[in-house]
Amino acid sequence: MKKSYKIKNSNLGKIIKLLSFILTLFLIFYFIYIQSDIDKMEKELNDVTNAVIHENLKNNDYKLTLKDQQKLLERLAREKLDYAHPEERVFVDASGIQ
Q: DSSP 3-state assignment of 40?
């Protein structure tokens, strides 16, 4: 009777060792797979972050250009078309001397 118990116990021990080995291999490969996904996503995040930074720089350039053009248009309107801001006082030199 004791021999049959030892045989079943040793088979059970082998099965548990085999299952734990298979589980360990599965987890190792799963973690490697997950790590590769994380690396891909970090690269994608870096690419998107760089694209956002590049677009922000372009937007700042456009804002500066627009501001400069607005100042230019305002100056041209004052000099060539004699325009003024709504609440601005304009003094005209009536002496004729320029």
A: helix
